[in-house]
Amino acid sequence: MQARFVLFLKKDVFRIGRDLARARVRQTKVFSVLFLQKKNILAAHATLLYAAGAMRILFLTATRLGDAVLSTGLLDHLLHEHPEALFTVACGPIAAGVFERMPRLERRIVVEKRRFDLHWPALWARLAGTRWDLAVDLRGSALTLLLRARARAIMRGGRREGPRISHLAGALGLRTPPLPVAWTAPADRARAARLVPEDGPVIGLGPTANWAGKIWAPERFVALYEALAAEMPGARAAVFGGPGEAERALAAPVLASLPGAIDLVGQCSVPEAAACLARCRLFVGNDSGLMHLAAAARVPTLGLFGPTSAEEYGPAGPHAAAVVAEGRTMEDLPVRAALRAATLLLERAAPAPVLPNV
After folding, report:
1. pLDDT below 50 — which residues of the chain?
2. Between 3.40.50.2000, 3.40.50.300, 3.30.930.10, 1.10.3720.10, what CATH number should domain 56-170 receive?
3. Which residue of 229, 260, 327, 338 pairs with 332 in a disulfide if CB–CB is 3.0 to 4.6 A?
């Protein structure tokens, strides 16, 4: 809600302050108010006043990219449930970009881990000055219990059966988990249009992951792409990956085998990557944050799973699926199984034909 700049007589200051207090007006940042005294205008510091209807919601979420993306469904739910609320999101450095374009984001606090868990008291010090209308803690910590809050929602820790988004939804008592979303801005979409032109169908590939056990062999990504492209005239690959030399090294064999591919490894911010993913006909990737971001961007997404749980961490989106290795390793996932799953996903995601009127 907009704050109003008021010019008033100095003798009225105490009366106005008393009335504002009775109205439960919220107080935040400092700015200058002008007092009119006789013919002179004097500058003084006062407090920016917001109307009492503006809620403040704290959202403490993940350090990892994929978990942060999965939590966006809850934020989207809260944004719609409380259209007047302002949000503070506390997250890890890798996850920070997920919330860069979030609507009504008042503060984004990046929590850097410290020895002896000293990041927790440091975070408390940054939050303790606010009285929160709702404090949501998806880390299962005790932090929100030490803050002034009218209501709290704390997710219970530990591993449980079922989809991760259902666990997250339980923190707010929701029976149906809201799907993750990917927030982008016009600038992100404009850059994506330059990087991923619409001159043919684009198949996104995500050959990287944060540990070796989740990585499908590069030659299998290439074989899968070639089989899919054979059925899509004019198709082109786009290879996605995060920043850093490790991601570049993991994607290099795929890029080398597909010389016409669009190289997006380490080239984009999180919102730009989401905008690029949204321009793809299909995304196929290892169990990773990029896989979750693709599903949140509403692109048909196929996640490749071996040792990790597809039931818990499968991609969540309107057109998302997982294909699971026959054994416990990615070596046990053949190209033919991934191709069959990708073909079925594309068929389900295709718009229904419009029948002529007769």
Report:
1. 1-52
2. 3.40.50.2000
3. 327
